[in-house]
Amino acid sequence: MSDDLHEIETEARPWEAYDSTVAATGFFAMLRYLPRLCGQVLRLAWSTSRVDTAALIGLTAVAEALTGVGLLATNSVFEGLLIDGPSPERVRAALPGLTLLVVSVVIRGVLRQGAHWAQARLSPQLQRAVETRMLGLVTQVELVAFDDGTFHDRLHRCRQRAGGTVYSLLRIAVDLLGCVAGFAAIAGALTVLHPILLPLLVLAVIPSAWAAVRSARLYYQMVIGFSGANRRMETLGDLMTERSSAAEVRSYTMRPFLLGEWERLSRHVQAADLAIEKRRATAQAAGSALAAVGTAVIFAALGLLLYTGRMPLAAAGTAVIAIRAAINVLTQATQVINYGYENGLFYQDYLDLCAEAEQRRMRDGGVEPPADLDRISVRDVTFTYPGAEEPALNGVSLEIASGEIIALVGENGSGKTTLAKVIAGLYEPASGDVTYGGVSARLIDLDGLRGHTAVIAQNFTRWPFTARQNITIGRFDHPDAVGQFERAASASGAAEVFARLSKGAETLLDPSYKGGTELSGGQWQRIAVARGLFRDAPLLICDEPTASLDAKTEHAIFESIRRHAVQRTVVLITHRLASVRYADRIFVLDGGRVVEQGTHAELMALAGIYAQFYSLQASAYQEVSPL
């Protein structure tokens, strides 16, 4: 378990560690923040669909403004019904106001339905725009970002909430607009009835607003504080439910351990959740009690105005309806503000992720890769992973000539794979430089560099596509796609895999879909080798390319790579030293440094680390006398 996760799990009140993040969540700060947030969402909606956005805003504003018309019509009805005279005359006097009231209610209902339709059209477009932007940016960030736990946590939260958050914020922005328009209409009516009613009404709902803000702040602190623990729980849940791990869960009887870990985390998060909910409930109860007192004051003031004759009875009846409507609108507004502030904080997470992804995005542009790109010089390169105390590479220097086959050898953690990724342009060194044909990697267009590089990795991706697509992925526009595909499949042994599949190379390689199938580890390894060979690149990097293959197939694959490497540069990483003895040069890494280099014969004569490793492996194949 990492130290960061341990700290998250054992901190008594982890949400308090994020007080600085939400320091500006007071009432007035929220009032300043939320309109700006709603403006951002509405601008995003406008850029997505102007017609739907204009219809949504216009219909909502007009519909809620009709509330004031309805109140004036209600007052007219009361005045007509309360005049002196027989009932028929009072009904006739009230009829114009009643007609206006009915018409306003009908029109308001039609406009609201139109606004709902516009919002239903706009919401999925907004979700798609937000998620497309997020995925577009995240797939362009530098590779090292995925080694950063903080970036991972934020990405995890945004993947779960970004689409739903923008949908909620659109609805919140519209509801808030409706509340403002409705309250403005009611406020106008109340001001006409008596000026004192409006400020009294506002004072009554301030406690509810405070409770809403307090509740939102507590909830956000909890979610942020436990995002790492929740991500860990999701990982454990995947391990217990995914097909890829099902066999080992059973064969290693891991069920008790995984369930125990999941339950321990869930109990910890649940306990904190209950503590937060208790504090939220207390704040909401206090706010509701104070709001009830404020409402009583309003009605007491209304009664006093009636008692002293400062307000007509018809106006008083209208005021009662207006006050109830205003309380409903302001209660809805506080709920909207509460929900909006919560979602606004998560939306800010999304904006922060996009901003960080922009800052960490891979460099665009630069000079075209040189013709002799496979002439590589690594000069005093240092690289440290995020959060690590020691560098993975420390002052590494080496030269690779065009068409040369070199091998990187060393124990696990010695820096072999990191160095290969630096050479491939996937990691940018903290110091030092890598040049290709004399041109610095910092000046070369990275997409162009990677277009001239093929990587065959031990931990390759098993794409849920057809076998053919798994090999041609990223190079569908190859000028000789059919011929190159056949050559790569033959050289890697993937053609033998196709022959056993129901639809050959067109078979879907994912058993979780209908018609899909699964391959063995060795079969997948051949697909991965074919993928690298298909790119037909001048620089080929092989990181444990035969780890899942038997000795016979491994020998055949290395022979194919050796044939394929004619006039190409190959960087080979493998623990099986018998496969590297024919490399032009071998570099031995230890603790992130190159400690030995030379040919196989030279290193054996040196009697150093390489000779020790090679002798240990060779001894395993020598005959041993039976006991």
Automatic annotation (TrEMBL):
Keywords: ATP-binding, Membrane, Nucleotide-binding, Transmembrane, Transmembrane helix. Pfam families: ABC_tran. This is ATP-binding cassette subfamily B protein/ATP-binding cassette subfamily C protein. Its main location: membrane. It is a multi-pass membrane protein. GO terms for cellular component: plasma membrane. Residues 376-616 form the ABC transporter domain. The keyword Membrane applies. Residues 65-342 form the ABC transmembrane type-1 domain. It comes from Allocatelliglobosispora scoriae. InterPro entries: AAA+_ATPase (IPR003593), ABC1_TM_dom (IPR011527), ABC1_TM_sf (IPR036640), ABC_transporter-like_ATP-bd (IPR003439), ABC_transporter-like_CS (IPR017871), P-loop_NTPase (IPR027417), Type_1_exporter (IPR039421).
